Amino acid sequence: MNHGASTHLEVIAVGRRFGGLTALDGVSFRVVRGEIFGLIGPNGSGKTTLLNIVSGRLNPSYGEVHKDGRRLSRRAPEYVCRAGVAGTFQLVRMPDALDARDNVAVAAMYGRRRLRINAARAEAERLLERVGFEASPAAYSDSLTYFDQKRVELARALACAPDLLLLDEWLAGLNPSELERAIVLVRSLKDEGLTIVLVEHVMHAIRSLCDRIVVLNAGRVIATGEPEQTLANREVIRVYLGEEA
Amino acid sequence: MVLFDFLIAGLVVGGIYALISIGLNLQYGVARVLNLAYGEFLMLAGYAAFWGFSLLGTPPFVTMLVGVPAAFVGSWLLFHYIFRPLLGRTRDQGKREVDSILSTFGLLFVLQGIALVLWTGTDRAYSFLSVPLHLFGIVIGANRLVALVAALMLAFAVYGLLRYSRTGRALRSIASNPEASPLVGVDVERYSGIAFAAGGALAAIAGILLSTFIGVNPTIGGAYTIKALIVITMGGIGHVLGGLIAGLMLGLAETMGALLLDPGLITVINFSLFTLVLLWRPQGLFGGTSRSSGGGIRLPKEVIALGALAILIVIPPYLGPYWLSLLLNILTYGALATGWAFFSGPTRYISLAASAFFGVGAYTIAVAAPTLGYPYALTIAFGVGVALSAVIGLTTLRLKGMYFVIFSFGLAALVREIVTWWEFNIANKAGRHLFLDISTIEIYYQLLALCVFVVVIWLIRDRTRMGHALRVLGADEVVARQVGINTTALKIGTFIISSVVMVLAGAILAPRWSYMDTTVAFNPSVSFLTVIMALLGGANSVWGPILGVVPLVLISDFLSVTLPNYFSVVLGLCFLGIVFFIPNGIIGLLQSWRARLKRPSSGDAA
Lengths: 245, 606
Prior knowledge:
The complex is a heterodimer. Chain A is an alpha/beta fold. Chain A has 9 helices and 10 strands. A 6-stranded mixed sheet of chain A has the order 6-7-8-3-9-10, with helices on both faces. In chain A, helix 4 (117-130) packs across helix 5.
């Protein structure tokens, strides 16, 4: 690992059990400031559980999560948000009590910045444009395309003013042309200095975006490193494709 | 051997609780209708047994042969003609819960009112099987033992049917996942109807058995509904054997509590136990909170409101006593309904406890004003309101959906019981006389000020970040927390303001009464009217509740003059009608009319 770069997020021996089921079993890794870090693995390997723990929605059974030396684990989601971590949900959650603009604006009113209503709305419009949102900012979720709903979620996460962004399968379900635009967008966020942790199944996106990845299987880390060589790892091929692909 | 005596006594009491809870468990756990009128079913069955016995001489078991099938058919019809169309209106589980609560709350008043009109408020009791049995050296009434045995038999029979019969399997699949059940060929509506009807039939059995040792009157239902709710929530909703065990436990705890502490504290003990269990295991079948909403409502009504305010300030000296008291009524409910909606509208926590806060305010004045003077008493009422709502908010706002509704329903009864117990045992008073030198006009202006206060706070809230935060919170709490909103603080703060307004409404109105006791101060119809008015008007916007208050105060005033006996029936029917026909409130209705008016004009422009 490059010792010149500083550790931004550190996951230390995190485990989580649901009743008798062990979803995570002592997972550790470091995310370096400014990189795109991929979290991959087959379904049920514990990726979303891990993101839920980092974002404060779930407490680990054991282990800790630190960001910039501050403990994040076992804190309330609102604390984690104010510590500079924001993210999107695996399944889009866009409250239909507010239009697209206010969905984003409310994150700028709270989050890390606490803007006043008018400033927050202006910021929301800027961010919606930034993520390429195509519909009217006054639209409600039921009249938006799936991609636009995802863009609202991303803009809402950005409105919290995070320095660490968690994307849970944000690229899933997009058509090929949408996917290309989304990849360009995510890369440009990195260029602005954000550290990004993404959970993803789309291999093409992982190869073209991630600086490093970690592969989870059954709640354990089975490989970590740069995408190309890690994805070529025999163990990784075995868990993804079955025996001897 | 005292301990053994109390063990048996506790089991007998617990048997009754288990018995009355089985039917509600089916109705709520399987048919997914939280039937707040369940106790009224028991009451009607009790009356059937009484009249059968005293007029025709038929013993209760014979009444059962006719009454139970009749209850089955009646409940089935009720489900198919009222609840099915109502619940079929939306797929949104949250909205369904609210609709079922509100409509059965209306039904409660209708059934109670009918019983009151037909059979008056007298306790009706008869003597059947009240022979003392000597069992293990202690004495139990045979009728109570029958209830215990019946509870055990029915619980195991229902459990067995659910577990091993085809119908039972279908019912269990609906209870655990109503969405997936049709995929495996289960006709959800048909089986929900059967479950609801079976629940009604079980209520009939319980009510008839109950009437053999308890006097029946039109108002006995509420207490049994609360007990049955406590039992099924503690035992796990839909789990019949869990309910049996919870019922027996509750009976034991109650008997022990009465022995060790004070018999007057039974309800308090029950409810504390219930609260502990709920707090320890809060999430139930309906863990989700996300719901759709009518959308943001904002009508430029401020000008009209200021005009109305000017009139309200100027007019009182020119009014006769009748009109003044009518306006006073409107202002009282204006404060109550707007205060209620301040919290319950945006957060969608439906509270049925308005009467608790109102009553606490009124009672604080009755206790403190004679010695300390009115201004100090009002300050104390304010303090009591803040303290009470902070404690309630901190402990209960983690409950979600139905559990909060159930809790608030019981909370009103709990607060009344505590105050009653205090008055009788500590203060040694049956009621209190109030001779305060405060004129109606002074009360009027105080209430007006309170209304203006709530509206102004609400308007300020809507224009700051907090209004946005509350809307996100009401729609999806997970998202709210993820964008950095401290939802706990927000909920508790809003809840305290809302509760204090209701407390102050009671405190300000108190000098109107010259005599007060707990039945006056904690009148449950205050909760009922507050919710009905706020929902009629529209609880999501600041002007909504007031729009509901005016017509309903006028209607209820008209009814109480022209049809005093049918007051409760007609009011209950109004409530049912509102839930059916005006689901988004008057303000929602106005909005959709405006939208309809606009549409043709935009069509012309195109």
